[in-house]
Structures are given as structure tokens and as C-alpha cells.
Design goal:
Blueprint (H helix, E strand, L loop, with lengths): L7 E8 L2 E8 L2 E7 L5 E9 L4 E2 L8 E5 L9 E2 L5 E2 L12 E5 L4 E3 L13 E2 L2 E7 L15 E8 L2 E2 H6 L4 H5 L4 E3 L3 E3 L7 E6 L2 E7 L7 H5 L1
Parallel strand pairs: 10-15
Antiparallel strand pairs: 1-2, 1-5, 1-16, 2-3, 3-4, 6-9, 7-8, 11-14, 12-13, 17-18
Length: 223
């Protein structure tokens, strides 16, 4: 995806018991037919936004994530061995992104209630840029990575920090049901290398950064 100056907002929605894709313009949703990642067209039908229920904006087969990737989140504390650590005392990645996976079943629509597991006691929020990969990608060079990105959305990478420390893998801490609120729209035409990203809790700003501060760029991560 290259910045085009023309911004479209694609949504997946339910109306009168039918699930479809559409384009969200102002307070209306224009229904599409076909595959949004391939051939699609407007049907001529549209609905007031208030008469639709916005869903998870796509149905991915994989949900991949990267940790410790904002320069503003790095605390340059040097260990006795000369390794740069972050605020949690973990080594800061310098040559390769810290990649992990969430389950597609962790995704829920924007605004849906988050139902925490009964034994989750230390759940935290992490606002994230989300790339929507629009076609099959493997062994992609960095300079071609943007052509595989259909659009972007925002997500909340919820994590239980006790589970993060206790478990061998992060699948429970990061991938529990409901631990991935996402959406509501996939936006095309933006420069995802320079987007402001803020996280608010009850209206109070808790995180504020820019995708320009990423240690590893979106294209590098996808590659």
C-alpha cells in the first residue's frame, strides 16, 4: 500500500442477519460484493451506520505481532554484561524483531466487551498499528513489502503480565479469547510509516507515539 491521498475505510458488518463487506463513508455503509482483497464492486445498496453492527474487519488465518519495537518504549539501561535492557529488564532487540503470535480467535470487534478469563489478574493494554496483508506473502524483499499491504487498522494487544512471566510461551498471555480488540475499519491510502498512535483509558492518554519511531519499520517486519 502506497500513500495515495484517497482514503477509504473498509468494514465488515452485519445488517438484518447478513454479513458483508462495505465502505464506510460519513454515517453510511455502502455494501460491496466480491473479495475486498481481489475483485469487488459496490452493489448500490447502503445502510445507515446505526443500522449495522461492525465486526472484526477481516478474518485472518494468522495474527503475527512484534514486541519492544517503539523507540520511545526503550529505556537504555546497560546490564553488567553490556546488554541494553528495556524497562522490564529484557534485552532490547537490535538485529531481529521480537516476533510472537496471537490466535485469530483472540480478535474481537472494536467496542465489544472484553471478558477476562477468571484467573487473569494482571491484564494490561498495548495500542498497536495493525497491517492487513492482502495477498499471499513469502520471502518478500523489503522494497516490495508495501505492495502486499492492503491497508491498516488499529488494535489493542492485551496481555496478562503474570502469565507472560510464568509460561514457556506467550500464547496464553497474549492469545486468550478477547485479547485482541481490533478495528473498526481497514483504512487504505495512508502513509503507515508516519501515523500518530495514541491509547486512551477512559479518555485519558496513556500512550502517545508515532509509527515513525518504530525500531523495525512495518516493511522490514513484513519482509
Amino acid at each position: 500500500m502506497k500513500p495515495t491521498g484517497k482514503v477509504d475505510k473498509y468494514v465488515r458488518f452485519e445488517h438484518a442477519g447478513t454479513i458483508a463487506y462495505g465502505i464506510w463513508e460519513n454515517d453510511r455503509v455502502k455494501r460491496l460484493e466480491g473479495d475486498i482483497f481481489d475483485d469487488h464492486a459496490l452493489t448500490g445498496r447502503e445502510y445507515p451506520l446505526t443500522q449495522t453492527r461492525l465486526l472484526v474487519p477481516c478474518q485472518p488465518s494468522k495474527v503475527l505481532a512484534v514486541g519492544l519495537n517503539y523507540a520511545s518504549h526503550r529505556v537504555h539501561v546497560e546490564s553488567s554484561e553490556g546488554v541494553i535492557l528495556n524497562a522490564a529488564g529484557r534485552p532490547v532487540p537490535s538485529t531481529y524483531p521480537g516476533v510472537f503470535a496471537k490466535f485469530p480467535t483472540s480478535l474481537i470487534p472494536d467496542g465489544e466487551d472484553i471478558v477476562l478469563p477468571g484467573d487473569a489478574t494482571n491484564v494490561h493494554f498495548e495500542g498497536e498499528l495493525v497491517l492487513i496483508v492482502g495477498k499471499k506473502a513469502k520471502h518478500v524483499p523489503v522494497d516490495l513489502a508495501s505492495s502486499y499491504v492492503f491497508g491498516v487498522t488499529i488494535g489493542n494487544d492485551l496481555v496478562d503480565r503474570e502469565w507472560l512471566l510464568e509460561d514457556l510461551q506467550w500464547f496464553r498471555a497474549k492469545g486468550a479469547d478477547g485479547f485482541g480488540p481490533i478495528g473498526p475499519a481497514i483504512v487504505t491510502g495512508l502513509d503507515y510509516n508516519n501515523l500518530k498512535l495514541e491509547t486512551r483509558v477512559n479518555g485519558e492518554v496513556r500512550q502517545s507515539s508515532s509509527t515513525s519511531e518504530l525500531v523495525f519499520s512495518p516493511d522490514k517486519i513484513l519482509s
